[in-house]
Structure formats: C-alpha cells, structure tokens
Write a structure and sequence with these properties.
7-stranded mixed sheet; 8-stranded mixed sheet; Rossmann fold; 10 helices
Length: 455
C-alpha cells in the first residue's frame, strides 16, 4: 500500500473501543472519531494482516448523530471516546456492540432469540464519576494535572473534567495550589527531581465525604502532613488523607503496595440506597454512584429473589451486591480472592447489622464446590468479574453445579460473549439488560440472566 494512501470510506458500525469501523477490500478499517453511516475521506496509517488503522481526513457526509463535543480536550485526552455522538445514540450504539460481540463469539446466536433490552441511560450524563486519579507534571513553578492521550505516555493538561463530579474538580484545583506552596513537586523522569506522581480524589456525594491520596515515588514526605492539614481545613468534606508509595516508574499501575495514613479517618462512608459501606483507598467501588443503584436494582429484579433463596456472590469485593440483596434472601455468601476485600465485606455486614451474609477469601472455583459439599445449595449465583471475564476453572464449576439461575454482571461484551458460549451448554440466556455506567465513553456494562436447561 502506498504511503499516505487515502480513500472514501463508509462507516458501518462502532467498535468496542469507540472507533468507527468501515471496510476496504473486505478488511476492517478502524477510524477514531468516525460515526456509523458517515462517509469520510480516510488516510491509512498502518496495515496489519487482518485490519487497517486509519484517520479522518475529511467528513464528506456527517452522521445525523454527530454533535459538537462539549469538552475542549476531547480527541486529545484519552478519557472519553463518544462525546461527539448524541447521548441517546451512544446508548443505541453500545447496545449494538453487545449484539456484534454475541454474533462473533456465541455459537448459534441467530437461533437463540436472546432478549437484549434497550440500554438504561442517565438523565444527566456528565459530572458522574466519583473518583479521579490524575497524573501530574510541573509547569514552571506550578503543578498541573491531566490524563494521558490514548495509547501514549503523553500527558494532556486538563483544568477540569466534565465527567468527574464537580466537587472533585474543585478539590483538585485547591490541591494544585497547595502543592507548590508546600514545596511538593511532580516527579520528572528526565531530571529525576520531584516526588509526586499522581493525585487521587474520591468523593461520595450521598455522604459528603472525600478521601485524598497522593502517590509518591518514595517516602520523602516533607510537608505532606502540613498540606493535608491545610487542605482539610479549607475543604471540610476531605475527611481522609493518605500517601501511597509507588517507586516503579515503568509500571502502568497507579498505586504501589504501601499506603500510609496521614490524617483524618482511615475510611470514608458510601451509601447504596440505605446500605452503608466503608471505603479505604485500595477498595474497588463502582465509579458511577447513581447508576450503581440502577445496576443493582436490575440484578435484584432479574434474579427475582425469594426470602427462602440461598445466593452466592462470586467476585464479591467489599460485599456491595451481597449486602444490597441480603435482606431479600435467606442467606448470601460472598467469595473473593482478595483478603482485604473480604475483611471489608465482613465489616460492612456488621456496619449494617446484616447477619445472613457470610464471606470467605479464596478462589471461587474451590470455595463454591466446598460450600455445596457442606450442604449449602445455592438457588442463584451472581458473578461480577473483571474485564478478563470468568476464570476457566470457575466456568467448569458453573457448568457442573447447574444452579437454577445465574446472574452475570459484565463490563466487557467480548469476554461476556465467550463465557456465554460455554455456559449455554448448560443454561439458557433469558435476557440481557445493558446499563450505561460510563456515559461519553466506550465502556459497556450489562446484566445477563441465565436459567438452567430443563431436561
């Protein structure tokens, strides 16, 4: 192919990363920023064996779904992928991403007649994120925050982010003023000066409590305590302040292993409806507070739980789903590989005076058969795995135990479809309900109800 080759391209659909997908001589062409039904002049950047990477040179025929992105950083920062698409159309395209994943990975998809509901969106699809983790850099004598451009280590400086809670943006502004005042500067890889790598702010709007974590390269913490004191005086909602030490500058992980409590409470409190949760800096907690209630209501509704039911919550984390449903069932048991998450789950059960929830640390593929052997026979198993999907060993267990109902909460349509391809050997797919947990981004979340095949 010639260098800088250009062609007219019609965009057929949206890809799993939010890119437009067209076809040139039967080969997929991925184009960031393009929208289905658009005709564009596309320049080919890179060609691989099974796909081409392209870029928009000119939009010849814009989509009716195209809008002006409200964020000045859109297209440069890697945080959002879909701000240039009408929100109601984002919901439609995300549902189509689920359909395409099922068509690709689920054998006999066309014969299964799966009921895929319309995606549940938000009334206000901006300023929803309850947590920010921002890389930092020095600009003269000031410290600035930003986000990395997609697939690069180039930091795009950002004054405000319109998908983060406005309180978080305001708190970050105050922190950026206090950092140079207390002589705390960003780590510079070239000069190896400075110590600060990231600023993390988590804010629970329904409890008005905020936790701040400064990620440092090493334990040189001069003036950190003074900064924490001044910040917590200026911003009363900041009730917990930590430092995290992450010396591995080559790692993509934001946090290192060591957290040091500096000031205030060790945890902040969150609410999902009337259920309380304590959140430590390392706790996994859903990033969209309002939609989390919607998501868990969908779980409860699809599971159609009874007071006599026994439920297992695999990948339970700090017990959010387990405790959300506990009052509707006879007993719920949660399992997670992370010891600290299980300790937090037990503490959260006590905090809510919930006595019918039991939590155990370990591998679900080992713990679940053990419980069943001991006489605990679940009516329903709920799974909320990471992006990589359900572990192969757990898939084997699920096919073997054949419970009445499975609830699969997925954040990755591709791994969902691959896992469903295995589970449909034993279970029927009853319904899939998508929920938009991350408006303006390509992330897709959905809840699938499966029932045991009756023979």
């Amino acid at each position: 192919m010639k260098s800088n080759f250009q062609t007219l391209l019609t965009i057929k659909r949206l890809g799993i990363n939010g890119e437009g997908i067209g076809y040139y001589k039967r080969k997929a062409v991925f184009v960031d920023g393009a929208i289905p039904e658009e005709e564009i002049i596309c320049e080919f950047i890179k060609e691989e064996d099974n796909y081409i990477q392209g870029k928009v040179v000119k939009i010849k025929k814009p989509s009716k779904d195209r809008v002006e992105a409200p964020c000045p950083y859109f297209g440069r920062c890697g945080g959002c992928q879909l701000q240039h698409i009408k929100y109601e159309s984002q919901l439609k395209f995300k549902r189509e991403i689920i359909v395409h994943s099922l068509e690709r990975y689920l054998t006999k998809y066309d014969q299964l007649n799966i009921d895929i509901k319309e995606m549940i969106g938000m009334d206000k699809p901006y300023y929803y994120r309850n947590k920010a983790q921002m890389p930092v850099a020095n600009e003269g004598r000031n410290v600035v925050t930003g986000l990395y451009a997609a697939n690069t280590n180039h930091l795009v400086y950002i004054d405000t982010c319109i998908i983060q809670n406005e309180f978080i943006n305001n708190t970050l502004d105050i922190i950026k003023v206090l950092l140079p005042k207390h002589h705390i500067m960003a780590y510079n890889r070239k000069t190896r000066s400075g110590n600060l790598r990231y600023v993390s702010v988590r804010y629970m709007e329904n409890t008005k409590e905020c936790q701040v974590v400064l990620v440092l390269k090493d334990k040189h913490m001069t003036n950190i305590s003074k900064l924490a004191e001044e910040l917590m005086t200026k911003v009363k909602e900041v009730v917990s302040f930590y430092v995290n030490i992450n010396p591995d500058i080559s790692s993509h992980e934001i946090y290192g292993e060591e957290f040091i409590h500096i000031r205030g409470k060790k945890t902040i409190e969150a609410l999902i409806k009337d259920i309380k949760f304590t959140i430590s800096p390392h706790s996994f907690y859903q990033l969209n507070t309002k939609q989390t209630e919607v998501l868990y209501d969908v779980v409860k509704q699809l599971a159609n739980l009874k007071k006599t039911d026994k439920v297992i919550d695999s990948y339970c984390g700090i017990g959010t789903i387990s405790l959300f449903i506990a009052r509707d069932v006879a007993e719920v048991r949660g399992v997670d590989i992370t010891e600290q998450a299980i300790k937090d789950a037990r503490n959260n059960a006590s905090l809510n005076n919930i006595t019918n929830a039991y939590f155990e640390a370990g591998h679900a593929e080992t713990i679940i058969p053990k419980w069943i052997k001991e006489g605990f026979k679940p009516d329903c198993i709920i799974m909320d795995p990471p992006l990589t999907g359900i572990d192969d060993k757990l898939l084997s267990v699920l096919k073997r135990v054949k419970v009445k109902k499975l609830i699969y909460v997925s954040c990755n349509p591709s791994t969902l479809a691959k896992d469903l391809n295995e589970l449909t050997k034993v279970y029927n797919i009853e319904v899939i309900q998508p929920v938009d947990m991350f408006p303006q981004t390509s992330h897709v979340e959905c809840v699938t109800l499966m029932s045991r095949v009756k023979k």
